[in-house]
Write a structure and sequence with these properties.
about 260 residues; alpha/beta; Rossmann fold; seven-stranded mixed sheet
């Protein structure tokens, strides 16, 4: 199953990079994701305002970005002053990540590896961040235990994911919404969005297709032994303009969960 999932993302590396790269070059989206990560990880001054959440500021953190893909999250976290390592099983994705890091001039380290079997020593990181990845891991319980292992005592895990399969909209409505959003993206972003679904064999084997989220994610953190678990729902919808919502709202609701080792 892991080989099939890796193969899917290898094939999608170029078009996925094109779909999400705008986050780095859109001032508003870049600023918003910086705010979200700063809120989840700690306190950092942005535009004169301080977002308080932990004793350590995000600018002092050694962070592991699990499932880094084309390195978008790693680049944003690095731009906040963090020391960031990205890990991903897809070689094609890591090639895109290297290109994006070079363009943004961020000192990032990328490693090819398995999110459920990390090639790092115990207590190597201050934080583990995972954005839009947990849903397609075959063994999320094992992943959580590994993420906790590589965290220092008091370190934080931050998971951002979404209700990709359990939201209330019908599949037909979602497909129609996705179809109608395409010309808006073409006009406003000057690119053609490319969508690709995992085959039914993979999707039916994933835990997230039948889970009620984020409740199931909270239980994953609890079973791994994380403490001070905190959930924020609809984190991205609140920041979207009406136009952005028309373009991207079909994906589902986005949530953020944090926990402390």
């Amino acid at each position: 199953m892991k080989d099939k999932i890796r193969g899917y993302w290898d094939r999608r590396a170029v078009d996925y990079d094109e779909n999400v790269r705008n986050i780095l070059y859109s001032p508003r989206e870049n600023r918003e994701w910086k705010r979200i990560f700063s809120q989840g990880l700690g306190s950092v001054k942005m535009n004169g305002a301080e977002l308080k959440d932990a004793k350590m500021t995000s600018a002092e953190m050694k962070i592991l970005d699990v499932g880094t893909g084309p390195g978008i999250v790693a680049t944003i976290l690095s731009s906040l002053g963090n020391q960031v390592t990205g890990i991903d099983p897809s070689r094609e994705m890591l090639e895109r990540a290297g290109i994006n890091a070079k363009r943004s001039k961020q000192p990032l380290v990328f490693v090819q590896g398995d999110a459920e079997n990390l090639p790092f020593m115990d207590g190597s990181f201050d934080a583990v961040v995972c954005r839009f990845v947990l849903w397609n891991l075959p063994h999320p319980d094992k992943a959580m235990i590994e993420w906790k292992r590589v965290l220092r005592p008091g370190g934080k895990v931050l998971v951002i994911d979404g209700t990709w399969y359990d939201h209330d909209d019908s599949p037909l409505k979602i497909k129609l919404w996705q179809f109608l959003s395409t010309p808006l993206i073409m006009l406003t972003e000057r690119r053609i969005p490319r969508y690709s679904s995992m085959n039914s064999e993979i999707k039916e084997s994933l835990w997230s297709t039948v889970a009620r989220r984020p409740q199931a994610d909270v239980r994953l953190l609890e079973r791994a032994g994380f403490e001070k678990i905190h959930v924020l729902e609809d984190i991205y919808r609140k920041s979207l303009t009406n136009l952005d919502y028309l373009k991207n709202g079909h994906w589902g609701r986005t949530f953020m969960i944090t926990g402390v080792k």
